[in-house]
Design brief:
heterodimer, A: alpha/beta, N-terminal domain of TfIIb, 2 domains, four-stranded mixed sheet, three-stranded mixed sheet, 7 strands, elongated, B: 245 residues, mainly alpha, Ferritin, binds zinc ion
Chain lengths: 161, 245
């Protein structure tokens, strides 16, 4: 049986998946986050390869379901979502646009110079660097909690990983 | 009969599952909100590691075993976790110390396993090492804070050390299936002991002396604590087999 899909399919699928967002941080798409690793075509099945940000990230199951739903809606019924661990995800894979969106959303983007700095992370509200670490563990596994010393707002920082 | 590889994967996943379950008992009971969240975050990371080990073990067994059946449908004697992780939470100090002693063991272990010839084991370890780095840092800071804190917190940490130290010897007494890891346990122990010695010194806590070391967990011989833990963990699937939501 001849393959139903051709190479244009991959581009079309990439476009569709541009709208799939992280359920925890809805301003970021899976492309922004660098979770989407590859798209492969097998005879009648589309395989979407994703990688988790954190081992225990509970959003991964939801993301896999949303990928299947998005493709189903556009007429691709046979979709297989595969999660791979290697190479391990790193915050370096987050796009520049993604980091910008994260900041506008009120979450400080990862700073590749330091994993979890004690201070100096830019406050997403008032943009001062006069801030301090409250806890290395924040509202989700990928974030740490900081507070701004100037505007006093607490805020999340996407941990560098 | 399991192959040594499957038993090794179960041992790795059981360690993280049982410690995750213990830590999650603190959910909603932590001393302050941030630390409650920190410990439950660690529990979640450990659960994620468990899923990776169980999924790999299930894929190798090929008899319909799933990550869920491994977690919910084995009996206590079929668990291969070390005794340390099943010890009761005690107070906050004992919970912190247990996490520290285990993270300090996981760190050099995963560092070695991330270059393991089995690609899946290497990938799981490389991923988990990033998380363990945070766990070790957080738990070390707390051991120092409590050890070098008030007379009350200091004495509680000494008590926690007395309670937990006898369960640390088993970490470096390899079971036959641990040959899969291909790691010299003496090297692992040196790395662990160096770290523990340094943190305890900073915490003004004495390094415990020679004592009788308990063992058995890695062979399926557990303390009664694990029965109670599994009763809670497995309750739903045992009472309503196959139930989903
Ligand atoms: Zn501010």
């Amino acid at each position: 049986m001849a393959p139903i899909y051709n190479n244009d399919t991959i581009q079309a699928i990439r476009e569709i998946l541009k709208d799939v967002c992280d359920p925890e941080i809805p301003v970021l798409t899976i492309t922004d986050l660098g979770i989407l690793r590859d798209i492969r075509l097998h005879d009648d099945t589309i395989e979407v390869i994703i990688t988790p940000t954190y081992t225990g990230c509970p959003a991964m199951d939801t993301i896999a379901m949303e990928i299947r739903m998005a493709l189903l809606e556009k007429g691709y019924p046979k979709v297989k979502v595969t999660s791979v661990l290697s190479p391990a995800w790193t915050t370096d894979w987050m796009s520049t646009a993604g980091k910008q969106k994260l900041k506008q959303y009120g979450i400080a983007p990862p700073d590749s110079r330091m994993a979890i700095p004690e201070d100096g992370v830019e406050c997403p509200q008032c943009h001062t660097n006069h801030t301090r670490l409250l806890s290395a563990f924040g509202s989700t596994a990928c974030k740490a909690l900081y507070q701004c010393n100037d505007c006093l707002e607490p805020f999340d920082y996407f941990k560098c990983h | 009969m399991h192959t040594d590889l499957i038993t090794f994967l179960l041992h790795m996943g059981d360690n993280t599952l049982i410690l995750s379950q213990r830590n999650s008992e603190w959910c909603g009971h932590g001393p302050v909100l941030e630390q409650d969240i920190a410990l439950t975050n660690i529990a979640l990371d450990l659960l994620g590691q468990t899923r990776n080990f169980y999924q790999y073990a299930a894929s190798l067994s090929g008899d319909g075993t799933t990550e869920d059946s491994l977690a919910y449908l084995r009996t206590v004697r079929e668990y291969y976790n070390c005794l340390l992780v099943e010890q009761p939470n005690g107070d906050w100090g004992q919970t912190i110390l247990r996490q520290f002693l285990f993270s300090a063991y996981q760190y050099p272990l995963y560092e070695k396993l991330k270059v393991h010839p089995d690609d899946t084991i290497a990938a799981i370890a490389a991923k988990a090492l990033k998380e363990v780095t945070y766990h070790l840092r957080w738990s070390s800071e707390w051991v120092v804070r409590l050890g070098d804190g008030t007379p009350e917190s200091h004495s509680r940490m000494i008590k926690a050390l007395d309670n937990l130290w006898p369960y640390t010897g088993e970490l470096f007494d390899p079971a036959s299936y641990e040959q899969i890891a291909a790691i010299d346990s003496a090297i692992l122990k040196t790395a662990w002991l160096d770290r523990v010695t340094a943190v305890l010194a900073e915490a003004t806590l004495p390094l415990p002396g020679q004592t009788f070391m308990q063992s058995g967990g890695k062979k399926g011989l557990h303390s009664e604590h694990l029965d109670y833990l599994l009763a809670e963990l497995q309750y739903l699937q045992r009472t309503y087999p196959g139930n989903e939501w």
